[in-house]
Structures are given as structure tokens and as C-alpha cells.
Amino acid sequence: MKLAVITDSSVVLQIAERENLFVLDIPVTIGEETYIEGKNLSVEEFYQKMAAASELPKTSQPSLSELVEILGRLQKDNYTHVIGLFLSSGISGFYQNIQYLKDEFEGMTIAFPDSKITSAPLGMMVENILKRYDAGRSFEEILAKLNQEISGTTAFIMVDDLGHLVKGGRLSNGAALLGNLLSIKPILYFTDEGKIEVYEKVRTEKKAVKRLLEILQEQTQNGRYQIAVIHANVPEKAKEFKRLLQENGMTYELPLVSFGSIIGTHLGEGAIAFGISPIFDEE
Known about the structure:
Layout: E1 3-8, E2 21-24, E3 27-30, E4 33-36, H1 43-52, E5 58-59, H2 64-76, E6 81-84, H3 94-98, E7 109-111, H4 119-134, H5 139-152, E8 154-158, H6 162-167, H7 173-181, E9 184-190, E10 196-203, H8 205-219, E11 225-231, H9 235-247, E12 256-258, H10 261-267, E13 272-278
Parallel strand pairs: 1-2, 1-6, 6-7, 11-12
Antiparallel strand pairs: 3-4, 3-5, 8-9, 8-13, 9-10, 11-13
């Protein structure tokens, strides 16, 4: 078996480049300019430009033609298997749009599972695919483990900016006004369908952070998990949340990563979150 993995630039990866790993760009348009994060736009620049813009940035789907071109190259290079793992179908139509490609390339077995997630947890799953391939696991085993991971992967997010949720259509003006008066900090989460919805509304940031910690403990009490602390351009707030986790007995590795433009557009600056993905012991 010769396996390639394709993902998109909403992913957060902790590994070096590999010849069998491909990342599709997701363009983001701010005002009249279109950028590719990581190429002509840093995460910090994105949040600066978003704050200065009169309208929310607009994100596009990854390029279907770029995916087709990569698959054609892989076919010529005698790859036998491909896994394409992209941002959740709950926040992008890309997953639905590519399914027909699975049967278009003779000699290659292609799988496009729905990740139902993005950012660091998506990266965890991509990295685990590659680790299992390097360990000599079969394609069927790799897919089975991946599907188990997908079913147990999620993220919970404390949002700082209610006005941003209004701009994004996730909250009414009236609800935001009342929320601001009451110092409401919504906690969002990725549902089982991979959509971002409100999980709870908590008064004051201090209580919301405490509740986020409680949710993480609830979500990880049965089993072992990879965990990442994720933030929307507030590294100090994320470091403080990580410290709180460690003080409360979290012995996991807790990498700190940033929400890029794809999710940052939905959440606004100031959000903090955790992403989790289950660990399955390799036998």
C-alpha cells in the first residue's frame, strides 16, 4: 500500500512536511483583498485586519480543481490509497461536493470521511493516520481507527465577542444587547453532526472559564484523550486556562494553538477553547 493524506489549511499540524501529505489552501477575503493564511497572511495579521474591516471576512471552500490535480498526480505516482480529511461538513459544503471523486481515479482506493471538526483536533487525526501508516497498519485498520476517533472528537469554545456572533448571524441584536448587560459568555461546541451551536450561556468570564474546565473534565473522564488549548489571538488568556487545567490535575500534553482565519471569522477575537480527540492504544 502506498498512502497519501490530503487535508486543508483549517488544520493545525504539529509535524514536519511529508511527501505524502498535502494541504489545500482555503482563501479568506477581507475587504477587497484575498489572502491565503500561512502564505501572505499570518494569524496575527488576520485578526488585525478583521478588527479594522467594516464587514466580516469571507472564507471560500478549498479548491476542487486543486484536489483533482493532486489526485491525478498521485495516480501517476502509483499511490494506491488516499484519505482526504477536511473541515467539518457542518461548516463547509466541501465534503459533499467531493464525494463523486472517489470513483474517478482507477487504481486508487479513495476515502473522504467527514471529520466533523477542524483546527487542532483535525490535525490530531491527520497525524494519527500517518503514524498508523508508518507502523504498517492496513487501510481498513487505519479507517476503522479514524472513524472511532471522529465519533469521540469535539471542541468547546468560550466566545468573548457577542457583537461578532450577531455579525455572523448566530445571535440576534436583542440577545446580544441583553447578553452584554448580563455579562453573558456563551460556550459553543461542535455537535455530533459537526455544526457549531450554543452549548450553554454563562454569566461572567470567570464563571465561563470555570465551566469550560468542568466540561473538559466531564468529556475526558472515561478514556484517554489528546487535548489542545486553542485561542483566538489571546495567547495570555490561553496560557492562564492551561495553567488552570494543570492545577486541576490535567496531566495530558496541552499544546497551545491559534484559531486561524476559518474559525476566527465565525468566533471573533478573544475566544478560548479546548479540542479533544480520543486515544486508542495501538496493539
